[in-house]
Here is the input.
Amino acid sequence: MPKDNSLKSVLIIGSGPIVIGQACEFDYSGSQAARSLREEGIEVTLINSNPATIMTDPTMAHNVYLLPLEVESIELILKKHKIDAVLPTMGGQTALNLAIKCDELGIWKEYGVKIIGVDIAAIEITENRESFRKLMEEIGVPMAPQATAKSFLEGKGIAQDFGYPLCIRPSYTLGGSGAAIVYEEADFDKLLDRGLHLSPIHEVMLDKALMGWKEYELELLRDNNDNVVIICSIENFDPMGIHTGDSITVAPAMTLSDTTFQKMRDMAIKMMRAIGNFAGGCNVQFAVSPDEKEDIIAIEINPRVSRSSALASKATGYPIAKIASKLAIGYNLDELKNQITKTTSALFEPTLDYVIVKIPRWNFGKFPGTDTRLGLQMKSVGEVMGIGRSFQEALQKACQSLEIGRNGLGADGREVTDQNKLLYSLGNPSWDRLFHIYDAIKLGIPFKTIKEKTKIDDWFLRQIEELIKLERVIEKYRIDDIPKDLMFEAKQKGYADRQIAHLLRCLESEVYNKRTEMGIRRVYKLVDTCAAEFEAQTPYYYSTFEAENESVVTPKKKIVVLGSGPNRIGQGIEFDYSCVHGVLAAKECGYETIMINCNPETVSTDFDTADKLYFEPVFWEHIYDIIQHEKPVGVIVQLGGQTALKLAQKLDRYGIRILGTSFDALDLAEDRGRFSNLLKELGIPYPKFGVVESAEQALELATDLGFPLLVRPSYVLGGQKMKIVINKEDLEHHVVDILNEMPENQILLDHFLTGAIEAEADAICDGKDVYIIGIMQHIEPAGIHSGDSYAVLPPYNLGDLVMHQIEEITNKIAVALRTVGLINIQFAIKDDKVYVIEANPRASRTVPFIAKAYQEPYVNYAAKVMLGEKKVKDFKFAPVKKGYAIKVPVFSYEKFPDVNKELGPEMKSTGEAIRFIDTLRDSYFQKIYSERNLYLSK
Here is the structure.
């Protein structure tokens, strides 16, 4: 069936601010859907309250509404536009819940809007655990023994019948909110009560916990003709009991027999057909018994694009959201082309001749006192994906992508050797269990013990054991006498030069030179969806060590954009927005664009954003090899947050051109001591400060500066390890803590200006002229990280005198730092005097917000300035200024119920929303202004 030509305009509902459990993978699917529908000549209207995403960019849809995701907003849009259909499957649980609410209120019916891509009845069945269980029983799909409780007493009765361990899963929640495993009766009451409260319909499902069973996911697509394709099988490295978003996952499935896989396929298709008649994407989760019987039990089905769809899309090169959107408007799979080969049909199932490993990224350091054990409730804030020819290579590359100071899975001198600590970690999984499995095998803890405690499949554990055996062989040699085949094997198994250098007791550069001399070089392979059976037309690459290189270098002038790696608190989706705009601007200037990034959730790693995508760790060795291969005219580091910025020093040292602001200027702004000296020369006020390298020096300096003091290390993002201290004991404790975690880092002590107002400015500079794109005033007083503050654009009560000082200082600093591109400067204002806290000559967290509020493509302009193609005076700036825009921080505290909500200099928010108001009399502004001191860290 060809497309439904009656659909002239479609509304896409986004997923709102980023929270744990619903991150930027929905920005990716929403963006793909919008592009996919526009290709069909359909008018696309988009609603989302998140200003940091590329999805809400004016280039994405015909009409973009940055409004709260509420029924009133939907009605407002439907009154203004003739909407034929709504696509609610691209915005996670938020979009689905809103679509259901509008359906219940009869809004879609009233305005003649058809729901496409999903069937409301299908959502109801899958979200209502009891209905789902009954349906599975009817179609003969086995599930774990389970029952629904709508009250506390009902829950107690079920627990008595089932016994422990038990799983509690609230209905209609996301990211496992409120879900828990209960091992003992003593914990049950509190967790049951919490689950009932968190479910919007106050219902929980209690099921017998299948602890230690293996967990799998299948990604499916179905069309109106009932054709179904399985896009990808994903195996969880971690067994049942850990939320899939917190599990290390592997594609394709590694330890599944073909017979069981076929059974699982049939069950998934049967389940998808049973829940309703709709065309679109679906994610099905299964548990498999860890014995030779391989019994299969269904866990759940999500009739929408899910968190794993982004991963499956990047893993296979099959753009699930793009195709799902086409199916939603009537196309069938056999009428659509595979987007990578452009010749085969979309009905052709992807085949992988490589392995991908996804590892989540956590931020427990931001939530002191929280329970860091992993369970049914998701806690990770981002993820990375490694692609390799083997599981071992993909695993090492994923570890290199995490940016947690590791060079791979081990071989870096950071092993834990405390047996008790390791045994506890194996049985109580947290963010570092993978590394502790390696440490335990290396220490000689019996394999049987490791297996019993982790319940991880033997095959995975043996793969890690093999790496340790290889390391023991390598350690017998030195750099001069290591055999070529051994060096080649180590590189094929994903070892970084740094790891090999550690094993051979030499320098990383010596390993690089040695392997180059041996002719052991990285080659690049295409991600082609069809195991090289058909030629791919889309340049999407990963590296490995083999003979044939599939990445052909063109004679065009090219630039590299370094991505921002995994999402984390302090460095989120706003940097992906900047990277995408940097790429698009460079394309407009006639450059071939090359993107390097390892985050599967983002638009920057879409296979058709840049001219060439290298899905590789943003890790020096990988970047250097790509640069050697492609020979670009330069590299843009200003758009990828701290991740890209940290590599500027290496690029500079190796003589690789940094486009835009020079490394020296970037370093000057990062080095708190050098920067404060520059302010002194310019006669710009700043809080009294000093730089120390030990706790003794800190105590000495404190006498001179006076308390309270703001203590912060150099070269960090998101206020990491930043703290206000009020006495010598606190100061000593915090400095020791920083030096323990970041040895040899300089620590800056600033006299903290109590009761000051905070503000920040973003500007574009070409080295000579400066244009301030926006000045924002924070609602909370100084002392709360700018990422956690409500901020108002333009300022609401700073006065002309203060505004004049801010503008003058911004101009002075931008020029003094020889900024070419973007710069963000933060200020504290006390008694009408403006003090500078810090300057960041790069894209900041607030740039997308200002661009959306003023409706101007500032990153596009800044990128053209960085490339030397334009000067500030070449742009006709015409910001749309009406009323005020408020940046609303969003937290994920419900995932950390035992953490207090106090705010301070270290950032804790996971996302943001934008709210427009006409006047300061607006009740929303009045409310947040009255609560500005509520969560201030005491």
Q: What stands out?
A: The CA atoms of residues 638 and 776 lie 21 Å apart.
